[in-house]
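Quick one, C-alpha coordinates below. Sequence please?
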Protein backbone atom coordinates (compact mmCIF):
# COMPACT_ATOMS: atom_id res chain seq x y z
CA UNK A 1 0.00 0.00 0.00
CA UNK A 2 1.41 3.40 -0.97
CA UNK A 3 0.57 6.06 1.57
CA UNK A 4 1.50 9.68 0.78
CA UNK A 5 1.37 12.78 2.93
CA UNK A 6 1.21 15.91 0.77
CA UNK A 7 2.76 18.62 2.89
CA UNK A 8 2.59 22.38 2.46
CA UNK A 9 5.32 23.54 4.81
CA UNK A 10 4.76 27.30 4.85
CA UNK A 11 2.55 28.17 7.78
CA UNK A 12 2.54 24.55 8.98
CA UNK A 13 6.13 23.74 9.91
CA UNK A 14 7.76 27.12 9.44
CA UNK A 15 6.68 30.75 9.68
CA UNK A 16 4.61 32.02 6.72
CA UNK A 17 6.53 32.76 3.57
CA UNK A 18 5.84 34.94 0.54
CA UNK A 19 6.99 33.24 -2.65
CA UNK A 20 9.06 34.96 -5.30
CA UNK A 21 8.82 32.46 -8.13
CA UNK A 22 7.34 34.91 -10.61
CA UNK A 23 9.79 37.77 -9.94
CA UNK A 24 12.69 38.52 -12.23
CA UNK A 25 15.19 38.69 -9.40
CA UNK A 26 16.88 36.10 -7.25
CA UNK A 27 14.76 35.31 -4.20
CA UNK A 28 15.99 36.36 -0.79
CA UNK A 29 16.87 33.80 1.85
CA UNK A 30 13.79 31.88 3.02
CA UNK A 31 12.02 33.04 6.14
CA UNK A 32 11.64 29.44 7.29
CA UNK A 33 14.25 29.38 9.96
CA UNK A 34 11.69 29.75 12.73
CA UNK A 35 9.89 26.44 13.36
CA UNK A 36 6.25 26.44 14.39
CA UNK A 37 4.76 24.31 17.21
CA UNK A 38 3.28 21.73 14.80
CA UNK A 39 6.71 20.58 13.65
CA UNK A 40 7.34 18.37 16.70
CA UNK A 41 3.98 16.51 16.69
CA UNK A 42 4.22 16.02 12.91
CA UNK A 43 7.67 14.43 13.22
CA UNK A 44 6.48 12.18 16.07
CA UNK A 45 3.34 11.00 14.25
CA UNK A 46 5.05 10.50 10.88
CA UNK A 47 7.80 8.41 12.52
CA UNK A 48 5.19 5.82 13.58
CA UNK A 49 4.25 5.09 9.95
CA UNK A 50 7.05 3.22 8.20
CA UNK A 51 5.32 3.01 4.83
CA UNK A 52 4.43 6.72 4.69
CA UNK A 53 6.10 8.89 2.05
CA UNK A 54 6.05 12.69 1.99
CA UNK A 55 5.59 14.85 -1.10
CA UNK A 56 6.11 18.59 -0.69
CA UNK A 57 3.51 20.97 -2.08
CA UNK A 58 5.32 24.24 -1.48
CA UNK A 59 6.47 27.29 -3.41
CA UNK A 60 9.71 27.01 -1.45
CA UNK A 61 10.65 24.10 -3.72
CA UNK A 62 10.26 26.32 -6.79
CA UNK A 63 12.24 29.19 -5.32
CA UNK A 64 15.05 27.39 -3.52
CA UNK A 65 15.22 23.88 -4.94
CA UNK A 66 14.05 20.53 -3.62
CA UNK A 67 17.33 19.49 -1.98
CA UNK A 68 17.77 22.72 -0.07
CA UNK A 69 14.25 22.48 1.34
CA UNK A 70 14.67 18.81 2.28
CA UNK A 71 17.89 19.69 4.13
CA UNK A 72 15.90 22.21 6.21
CA UNK A 73 13.55 19.46 7.44
CA UNK A 74 14.22 17.36 10.54
CA UNK A 75 15.89 14.03 9.72
CA UNK A 76 12.80 11.83 10.02
CA UNK A 77 10.78 14.06 7.69
CA UNK A 78 13.68 14.46 5.26
CA UNK A 79 14.18 10.68 5.00
CA UNK A 80 10.53 10.15 4.11
CA UNK A 81 10.38 13.00 1.57
CA UNK A 82 10.38 11.48 -1.90
CA UNK A 83 9.41 14.38 -4.13
CA UNK A 84 7.43 17.53 -4.76
CA UNK A 85 4.35 18.47 -6.71
CA UNK A 86 6.35 21.05 -8.67
CA UNK A 87 9.82 21.31 -10.15
CA UNK A 88 12.46 23.19 -8.18
CA UNK A 89 14.60 25.98 -9.56
CA UNK A 90 16.50 28.37 -7.36
CA UNK A 91 16.68 31.36 -9.67
CA UNK A 92 14.10 32.19 -12.31
CA UNK A 93 15.33 34.36 -15.13
CA UNK A 94 11.86 35.08 -16.50
CA UNK A 95 8.33 35.18 -15.22
CA UNK A 96 6.59 31.82 -15.47
CA UNK A 97 2.87 31.18 -15.25
CA UNK A 98 2.35 28.35 -12.78
CA UNK A 99 -0.87 26.46 -12.16
CA UNK A 100 -2.30 26.66 -8.66
CA UNK A 101 -0.87 24.45 -5.92
CA UNK A 102 -4.21 22.63 -5.79
CA UNK A 103 -3.95 21.81 -9.49
CA UNK A 104 -0.32 20.69 -9.15
CA UNK A 105 -1.31 18.45 -6.23
CA UNK A 106 -4.21 17.03 -8.24
CA UNK A 107 -1.86 16.17 -11.14
CA UNK A 108 0.67 14.62 -8.76
CA UNK A 109 -1.98 12.43 -7.10
CA UNK A 110 -3.00 11.16 -10.53
CA UNK A 111 0.65 10.46 -11.46
CA UNK A 112 1.68 8.73 -8.20
CA UNK A 113 -1.70 7.01 -7.69
CA UNK A 114 -1.34 6.48 -3.94
CA UNK A 115 -3.70 4.02 -2.31
CA UNK A 116 -4.03 6.41 0.62
CA UNK A 117 -3.35 10.13 0.79
CA UNK A 118 -3.33 12.77 3.47
CA UNK A 119 -2.92 16.51 2.90
CA UNK A 120 -1.67 19.02 5.45
CA UNK A 121 -1.60 22.67 4.40
CA UNK A 122 -2.06 26.16 5.84
CA UNK A 123 -3.69 27.38 2.64
CA UNK A 124 -7.23 26.18 2.07
CA UNK A 125 -6.93 27.04 -1.63
CA UNK A 126 -4.06 24.53 -2.00
CA UNK A 127 -6.37 21.63 -1.06
CA UNK A 128 -8.37 20.22 -3.98
CA UNK A 129 -12.04 20.09 -2.90
CA UNK A 130 -12.35 16.42 -3.85
CA UNK A 131 -9.76 15.61 -1.17
CA UNK A 132 -11.18 17.72 1.68
CA UNK A 133 -12.09 14.58 3.62
CA UNK A 134 -8.40 13.55 3.61
CA UNK A 135 -7.02 17.00 4.43
CA UNK A 136 -6.10 19.04 7.46
CA UNK A 137 -6.30 22.78 7.01
CA UNK A 138 -3.93 24.35 9.51
CA UNK A 139 -5.83 27.49 10.35
CA UNK A 140 -3.65 28.37 13.36
CA UNK A 141 -0.24 26.73 13.72
CA UNK A 142 -0.01 27.56 17.41
CA UNK A 143 0.09 25.54 20.61
CA UNK A 144 -3.70 25.64 21.04
CA UNK A 145 -4.16 23.89 17.66
CA UNK A 146 -1.67 21.07 18.48
CA UNK A 147 -4.08 18.61 20.14
CA UNK A 148 -6.64 18.86 17.34
CA UNK A 149 -3.90 18.66 14.70
CA UNK A 150 -2.30 15.60 16.31
CA UNK A 151 -5.63 13.80 16.67
CA UNK A 152 -6.71 14.58 13.09
CA UNK A 153 -3.37 13.58 11.56
CA UNK A 154 -3.23 10.32 13.53
CA UNK A 155 -6.81 9.47 12.54
CA UNK A 156 -6.18 10.13 8.82
CA UNK A 157 -2.93 8.15 8.75
CA UNK A 158 -4.45 5.22 10.58
CA UNK A 159 -7.67 4.88 8.57
CA UNK A 160 -7.83 2.53 5.66
CA UNK A 161 -9.70 4.86 3.32
CA UNK A 162 -8.50 3.90 -0.14
CA UNK A 163 -8.55 6.22 -3.14
CA UNK A 164 -10.69 4.91 -5.95
Amino acid sequence: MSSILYLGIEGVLFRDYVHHHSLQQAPRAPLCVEPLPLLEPLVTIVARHDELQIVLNSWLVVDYGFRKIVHMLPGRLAMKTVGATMPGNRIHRRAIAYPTRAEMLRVDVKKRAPSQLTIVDASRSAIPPEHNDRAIWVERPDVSFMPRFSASLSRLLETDDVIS
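Residues 146-158 form the longest helix (13 residues). The mean pLDDT is 84.
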